[in-house]
Specification:
It contains 11 helices and 16 strands. With 522 residues, the chain is α+β, with helices and mostly antiparallel strands. Among the domains are: 169 residues, 2-Layer Sandwich (Beta-Lactamase); 193 residues, Nucleotide cyclase, GGDEF domain (Alpha-Beta Plaits, 2-Layer Sandwich), CATH 3.30.70. Strands 7, 8, 9, 11, 12, 14, 15 and 16 form an 8-stranded mixed β-sheet that branches. Strands 4-3-6-5 form a 4-stranded antiparallel β-sheet, with helices on both faces. Helix 1 packs antiparallel against helix 6 and helix 8 runs antiparallel to helix 9. The longest helix is centred in the middle third of the chain and has 56 residues.
């Protein structure tokens, strides 16, 4: 039978951890996605803000014109106001195509807070140039093309017309006034795309926003995880509790208790399983009841038949024994071979029944009861009862392939019961008369329902040898041992260990190797 498996990691813990893990993964994915999108949106907002500022600065050219030139202070003032509004701007500047800073603004508060070690110059534009060119940690630079011109296209076109008039010849009949020499145009900035607005942002503002978001999200996630853990634990407990109820019912059934009914109040698959289990128990009880009834009837019929055979054999043997006065035929090859167990009870005959103690009477009664029940259990036969021995037979009238195994087991059980009975009496302080009950196992034959002569001779010389050894050996209050011939000892080697006692001589000179049981293997 397979050993019972122990629970090392319960189903409740597995379900709870699974649900909690799924909850953590889901929350982590949501928070990660949200932070990534927030970071991308922050950079997109910076880029869009620079585009908007670029557009606004480009629209200032009509206001910033003075005498055909650009008043860069107007752009500088606008950018100074912008850096005060957007707290993430470190510095910003308008740089022409030659790399000259035309207008700039710097957020001193941001520089002092986050970039104290930044090297700056004395000039504002130079300081901004350093900030924009220098690589700063946690900073993000955005560029935008800017359109700023110092003359209108109309003025340029007019200047071109004046040049054309100076080169024409006067028409006939008309005098042409000499045009005044045109003033040389002042140098103008390059047209659209050559001037850039460069803005450098600090990322610390985004970090602060992200940290605040992480803190708030963590608090929310902690609350969700606690609620989720409690919910998962309750759900797992609900499921596992129902399973444990069914498992407990199964365990009782495995122990042989069929008066079991599991009560699971659930409308899911577990409830269906519980109903199926209860129906199975009802059907199983019905089948067991029918099976027990059949077995009882069959066992009764079998026992009755065995008892009839045993009784018939015993009574016939006793009747013929009295008539024939101890007749023992000579064995022939075609007779029934069997294993005989002689239980020597001659020691009891030394006492008159009326003078026996009650303790010894109880021992004799229980011994006879045990002999009868054991012979019946292992389907042997109480073949003969005399004033000197009780004779058991395994092989006749009930023959089995393992009669020798049945014989050795029966003998050991009877002896064990006898020893326990005597020891219990002695332990309780009762006085038990000295006696010895020994068991002798020999192979023999049954001829015409009689024990063959050779078997009786074997038993006679063996028991004489044992009694002589007991009489002149060490004195014991009681003695009981199992003896066997060498062929019995070799035939039961898989179940018992025998040791050699002596070589006992028969009347006709033949010797018998006498063995004594030393221990069993069952």
């Amino acid at each position: 039978m397979a050993s019972r498996r122990t629970v090392k990691f319960s189903l409740q813990n597995k379900i709870t951890i699974l649900i909690f893990t799924l909850l953590i993964v889901t929350l982590a994915s949501i928070v990660g996605y949200y932070m990534s999108m927030n970071w991308k949106n922050a950079k997109d907002q910076m880029t869009n803000s620079v585009k908007k500022v670029t557009k606004n600065l480009g629209a200032l050219w009509s206001v910033a014109r003075e005498n055909g030139r650009v008043n860069w202070k107007v752009y500088g003032d606008y950018m100074s106001g912008f850096v005060q509004v957007d707290k993430n701007v470190i510095a910003m500047a308008i740089i022409d195509s030659s790399g000259i800073v035309r207008a700039s603004a710097i957020n001193d508060a941001v520089v002092k807070k986050y970039y104290k070690d930044l090297k700056t110059g004395t000039d504002k534009n130079e300081t901004v140039k350093i900030i924009l060119d220098q690589k700063l940690d946690d900073a993000y630079k955005v560029k935008g093309n800017l359109r700023i011109v110092d003359k209108t296209e109309a003025e340029k076109a007019k200047a071109g017309q004046v040049k054309a008039v100076k080169g024409q010849k006067p028409a006939k009949g008309r005098a042409i006034k000499a045009a005044k020499p045109a003033a040389a145009p002042e140098p103008a900035l390059k047209s659209t795309g050559t001037t850039q607005l460069v803005v450098k942002y600090t990322m610390w503002g985004i970090y602060d926003s992200q940290n605040a978001m992480v803190l708030n999200t963590s608090i929310l996630a902690l609350v969700i995880l606690i609620v989720g853990w409690l919910g998962a634990w309750y759900l797992a407990k609900y499921i596992s509790t129902n399973f444990n109820i069914i498992v407990a019912g199964m365990r009782k059934v495995a122990e042989g208790n069929l008066d079991v009914e599991v009560n699971v109040r659930s409308n899911d698959e577990v409830g269906v399983l519980a109903d199926d289990f209860n129906r199975m128990i009802v059907e199983l009880k019905q089948k067991v009841r029918i099976k027990d009834a059949f077995e009882t009837v069959a066992d009764g019929l079998k026992d009755m038949d065995d008892i009839k055979k045993a009784y018939k054999t015993l009574t016939y043997q006793e009747m013929t024994d009295k008539m024939m006065k101890g007749y023992a035929p000579t064995a022939r090859p075609d007779e029934n071979k069997t294993i005989f167990i002689f239980i020597d009870t001659s020691a009891f005959m030394n006492y008159s029944y009326e003078l026996m103690s009650e303790e010894l009477k109880v021992i004799i009664e229980k011994l006879i009861e045990k002999v009868s029940m054991t012979a019946l259990e292992y389907q042997g036969a109480v073949f003969k009862v005399t004033d000197k021995y009780i004779l058991l037979s395994f092989g006749y009238p009930f023959k089995h392939k393992d009669d020798m195994k049945r014989a050795i087991i029966s003998t050991v059980e009877i002896r064990k019961e006898l020893v326990q009975i005597v020891k219990s009496k002695l332990t309780m302080g009762y006085a038990v008369e000295d006696f010895s009950v020994n068991f002798v196992m020999v192979n023999g034959n049954v001829s015409k329902n009689f024990v063959d002569r050779l078997t009786l001779e074997k038993y006679g010389v063996i028991i004489d040898y044992i009694n002589f050894a007991v009489k002149y050996g060490e004195k014991k209050q009681y003695s009981t041992d199992i003896y066997a011939t060498s062929d019995i000892a070799s035939g039961t080697g898989a179940l018992a260990n025998f040791e050699r006692v002596d070589s006992v001589a028969m009347r006709e000179g033949e010797a018998i190797e006498l063995m004594k049981l030393k221990g069993t293997k069952f």
